[in-house]
C-alpha cells in the first residue's frame, strides 16, 4: 500500500480507503464477513476508514467503532459526516451550530474515539449561513474533537464561499473534500480540482466505481447478475447508470484492462489516482476478496498510451464558455 498526504497537509492516508454505509449487521453472518473485510484492510495497509452519522441510523459508525477499537488509535484515520436527518425534530438535520455540536458527540461515542480525523459537511445547507458552519467546524478543531474538516458534494461556488469566509474570519482551514468522481462522472475536473490545487485541499472521492458500473459485472446484452446491487438498491442509482452509452464504454474499457493484466475495477481506481490532487479513493467492499482486488490499484501506473485510449473512450467534454 502506498500513502499520500491529505492535500498540502501532514496527514497521510492510504491510496485506497474503505467506506461503510452498511445496514445494521449485528449478530448476522454478514457482520462477521464485514469484520473480516476490515481486518483484511488493516493487514494490507489500509489506514483510512470512512463513515457518516446518518448511515443506517448510526449502525455503521457503531460497527466501525467496535472493530476499530481493536487497534491502536495511531493505526487508523477515521472520518464521519453531518447533515442528513437523524431524527424528526426541526434541528435534527443540517449544518447549524446546534446540530453539529450534538452530532459530533454522538459520532465520537459511536466510533469509540476521542477525536475524528476527518469531518465532512455531507451536503450544503441553504438554511444555515456558511459562516456559522465554518465557525463551529473551526471551533471543533480548536477543541481537539476533529483534526481536519471538509465538505462533500458542494458546488465550486459554495466551496469558494466557504474559503472566503474562512480567510476573512481567520478560521482553521478547510482541508479536504469528498466529491463523487469516476470515469462516468468527471464534473470535478471542470473547476473543483483547480480550486483544491490552489488551496492545498485533498480530494477523497466516493463512488469511484460508479455504483459497480466500472467493475465489469454489468455487461451489454447480458442479464443483471443475481444478487448484484442493481437487484436490490432502493434508490436505483446503479440502474440509472446502466445506459447503452455507459455499457458501450465498459465494453471498450475491458480490453484495455485485460491488456494491462488487471480487472476493470483496478483500472478505474488507478485512473482516478492518476491525478496528484487525489489523496485517496473511498471504496466499498462486501467481502475480503473484493477489497483485496481493489487494493491492487495502489501504486499501479497506467501507461500514457492507455490513458490516451481511455480518454478517447470516455469522450469527456469539459464545460468551457468563452466570454467576449
Please explain how this structure is put together.
This protein is of the alpha/beta class. It has a single domain, classed as TIM Barrel (Alpha-Beta Barrel), CATH 3.20.20. 39% of the residues lie in helices and 12% in strands. It is built from eleven helices and ten strands. It has an eight-stranded parallel β-sheet with strand order 9-8-7-6-5-4-3-10, covered by helices on one side. Strands 1-2 form a two-stranded antiparallel sheet. Strand 5 (77-82), helix 3 and strand 6 form a beta-alpha-beta unit. Helix 2 packs across helix 3 (97-111), helix 4 (130-143) packs across helix 5 and helix 8 runs antiparallel to helix 11. The termini are far apart. The mean pLDDT is 93.
Question: Could you give a short description of this structure?
Answer:
The protein is of the alpha/beta class. The chain has 11 helices and 10 strands.
Amino acid at each position: 500500500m502506498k500513502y499520500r498526504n491529505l492535500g498540502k497537509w501532514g496527514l497521510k492516508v492510504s491510496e485506497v480507503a474503505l467506506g461503510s454505509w452498511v445496514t445494521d449487521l449485528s449478530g448476522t453472518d454478514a457482520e462477521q464477513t464485514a469484520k473480516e473485510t476490515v481486518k483484511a484492510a488493516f493487514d494490507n495497509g489500509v489506514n483510512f476508514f470512512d463513515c457518516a452519522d446518518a448511515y443506517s441510523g448510526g449502525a455503521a459508525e457503531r460497527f466501525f467503532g467496535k472493530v476499530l477499537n481493536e487497534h491502536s488509535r495511531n493505526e487508523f484515520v477515521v472520518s464521519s459526516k453531518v447533515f442528513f436527518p437523524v431524527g424528526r425534530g426541526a434541528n435534527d438535520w443540517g449544518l447549524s451550530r446546534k446540530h453539529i455540536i450534538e452530532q459530533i458527540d454522538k459520532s465520537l461515542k459511536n466510533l469509540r474515539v476521542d477525536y475524528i480525523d476527518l469531518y465532512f459537511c455531507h451536503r450544503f445547507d441553504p438554511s444555515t449561513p456558511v459562516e456559522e458552519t465554518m465557525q463551529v467546524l473551526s471551533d471543533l478543531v480548536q477543541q481537539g474533537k476533529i483534526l481536519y474538516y471538509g465538505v462533500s458534494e458542494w458546488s465550486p461556488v459554495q466551496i469558494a464561499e466557504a474559503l472566503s469566509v474562512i480567510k476573512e474570519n481567520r478560521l482553521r482551514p478547510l482541508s479536504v473534500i469528498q466529491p463523487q468522481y469516476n470515469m462516468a462522472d468527471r464534473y470535478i475536473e471542470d473547476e473543483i480540482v483547480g480550486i483544491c490545487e490552489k488551496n492545498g485541499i485533498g480530494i477523497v472521492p466516493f463512488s469511484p466505481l460508479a455504483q459497480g458500473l466500472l467493475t465489469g459485472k454489468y455487461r451489454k446484452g447480458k442479464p443483471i447478475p443475481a444478487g448484484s446491487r442493481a437487484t436490490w438498491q432502493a434508490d436505483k442509482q446503479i440502474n440509472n447508470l446502466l445506459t447503452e452509452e455507459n455499457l458501450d464504454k465498459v465494453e471498450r474499457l475491458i480490453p484495455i484492462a485485460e491488456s494491462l493484466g488487471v480487472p476493470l475495477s483496478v483500472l478505474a481506481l488507478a485512473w482516478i489516482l492518476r491525478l496528484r490532487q487525489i489523496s485517496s479513493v473511498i471504496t466499498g467492499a462486501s467481502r475480503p476478496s473484493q477489497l483485496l482486488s481493489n487494493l491492487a490499484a495502489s501504486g499501479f501506473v497506467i501507461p500514457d498510451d492507455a490513458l490516451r485510449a481511455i480518454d478517447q473512450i470516455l469522450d469527456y467534454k469539459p464545460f468551457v464558455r468563452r466570454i467576449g
